[in-house]
Amino acid sequence: MEFTKDKLARIWLQCAPMGVWSRLREWKEHLGGAEQLWDVFSPDFHALLGDQAYAQLADSRKNGCREILYQLDSLKIRPLFLGDGDYPAALARIPDPPDVLFCRGQLFPDGHAAAVVGARSATRYGLAHARRIARELAAAGVTVVSGLARGVDAAAHEGALDAGGHTVAVLGSGLGQLYPPENRDLARRILESGGAIVSELAPDAQPISYHFPVRNRIISGLSGAVVLIEARQKSGTHSTVNHALNQGREVFALPGSLDAPGSELPLQLLKEGAQICTCGQDVLSFMGWNAPPAVQSTFLPDEEESDPILRALALEEKTLEELIGETGIPAAQLSAQLTLLEINGKIERRAGRAYARARA
Q1: In what order do the strands lie in the sheet with 143-146?
Q2: pLDDT in the model for residue 143
Q3: Which of 23, 124, 196, 316 has its CA 20 to 30 A from that of 72?
Q4: Rounded distance between C-alpha atoms, residue 261 and residue 336, angstroms
Q5: pLDDT score for 251
Q6: What is the per-residue DSSP string for 77-88?
Q7: How far apart are CA 32 and CA 14, in angstroms?
Q8: What secondary structure letter does DSSP report for 274?
Q9: What digits encode the pLDDT tens for the residues 103-124?
Q10: What pTM did the predictor assign?
C-alpha cells in the first residue's frame, strides 16, 4: 500500500496507544493536522506521553510506519479515512468519529444498519431472541452491527448469518488480535459471508478493558437504531446505550422477566421511553425501513414445516423434556427421531441434553 504523507501520518497517529490519544489530538488540532504533528514530533514529547508511548511513536515514525503498513497489507486491512467517500457516512456524523477506521471485509455504510447488543453472560431467553431479531433484521436487508463478544453479540452475528445477511463486528482490539479466541471462527464466517470486521485500534492492539467502552461509540455510530437485549445497570452495554442517546440514535429494548438480572437495564430504558422490541418488525416499522413479508418467517423449507420437532427448534434450542412437552411425542419415539435428524444433519446436540437446528 502507498499513502500520501498526510495519510501516513494519520495512520501513525491513529495507531498510538489509546491512553495518549486525547493529548495527541489536542496537539494535532493546535498544529493543524497529523502531518504537522509528524513534522514537529521530537524528544520534547517524551514528558507529555511517557516512556512507552513515546518510544512506540518515535520508532514507528523513524521507520516510516513500516511495521504498521506490513500488518495492514498482510491482513488485508483497508484504512478508511474520515472525509473520504468510503468512510461510513453515519459514523462521520457522530461527535468524535475515529480519524481512521481499519476495515477487513466489505463495509456497507450507506444502507440501513441496526446494532444488536447485550450481556456476555446472557440467558437462553436472551440469546434466542437476539439471534431471532438479528435474523429478521438481516432478512429485511438491514446490516446487523455488534461487537463479536461472547453472549448476545455472538448470537446477533449468528442470526444475521442464518439469514444470509450482512453483519459488521466492531472490535475492542486490533484486527490482528481477534477477541475472544472462541469467536475467531465466527469472525472468519462473517468475512466469508461478505461482512466486515472493523476497529480504530492498531492491528496488534491487545483487548485491554478500557478499549471496549470507547469502541462502543462506533457500534452505535454505524447504526441507525440500537436494540438492547439483556444487560445489568452497571455494564459495558450501558455505555453503548449512552453513546446511542448522545448520537441521536433510536434505542429499542427487549422486555424480560421482572426478576431477571439481565432485565434491569432494558426495563429501565422502556420506562424512560425506549421503544419496545419483541421482533425485527418492531424496529423495521418504527424506523420506516421497508421489509419483505417473509421477515417473520422461521426460515424452514416447505417440506420441513410439517415436522413438529423442527418447528419446535426453529427459534431456539430446547431440552429433551421441553421437546416432549411441546411436541407430545413419547420419549422413546422422540429420542429415535432426534437421532435420525442429527444423522441427517438437520439438528445438532448441545450441552445440557439440549438440541438446536443445525447451522447452515
Answers
A1: 78-81, 100-105, 196-199, 167-170, 143-146, 113-117, 225-228, 250-253, 275-276
A2: 97
A3: 23
A4: 38
A5: 96
A6: PEEEETTSTTS-
A7: 16
A8: P
A9: 999 987 567 999 999 999 899 9
A10: 0.79
pLDDT along the chain (360 residues), means of 10: 91 91 86 93 90 91 93 96 94 95 86 93 92 96 96 96 96 96 96 97 94 95 96 81 94 87 87 93 92 44 66 84 87 82 84 77
Reference 285, options 250, 311, 309; nearest CA is: 250
Report CA torsion sign: 212, 218, 222, 224: positive
Q: How far apart are CA 86 and CA 80, in angstroms?
A: 7
* Cell numbers found for residue 214: 470507547
Q: Which amino acid is at 72?
A: L
Strand runs labelled E in the chain: 78-81, 100-105, 113-117, 143-146, 167-170, 196-199, 225-228, 250-253, 275-276, 318-319, 347-350, 354-357
Contacts of 264 (CB under 8 A, 6+ apart): 231, 232, 233
pLDDT digits over 231-244, tens only?
877 777 888 999 99
Nearest partner of 13 among 221, 22, 3, 72, judged by Cα: 22
d(CA 220, CA 132): 20
Within its chain, how far is the Cα of 86 from the centroid?
20
CB count in 10 Å sphere of residue 62: 10
Alpha-carbon distance 167 to 153, whole Å?
A: 11
Q: How many CB atoms lie within 10 A of CB 7?
A: 17
**Exposed e or buried b per residue across 89-106, where buried means at least 16 C-beta atoms within 10 angstroms of its C-beta:** ebbbebeebbbbbbbbbe
Q: Which three cell numbers stand for residue 219?
A: 457500534
